[in-house]
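Appendix C reproduces, verbatim, an entry submitted by the partner laboratory led by Prof. M.T., so that reviewers can inspect both the input and the predicted structure.
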Amino acid sequence: MGKPTEEELKLALEEVSRMREQGEDPHFVAKSLLNIYYRFKLLEKVLQAAERYLHSGQAVHEHTLLVRAINDYHAKEKRSAGEDDDTI
């Protein structure tokens, strides 16, 4: 399976957004794709921070940015699952 082009991805995300907004998602395919895409974008930030950290010779500032990116991912994961501290 090939990777979608930027245009294909854009069209797919527009369509699943439309499906969710209009309640046309009986098998939760649109919800799942949107969630996976959102999580993927967050994990890309973690990967970028990790690569910068390793490339910098493991500098303190880049380590802080990496830890912050990981913590941000976990916080947003909890929030999207309804498990954030504000709801408990």
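The CA atoms of residues 16 and 30 lie 5 Å apart. Additional entries are available on request from the coordinating office.
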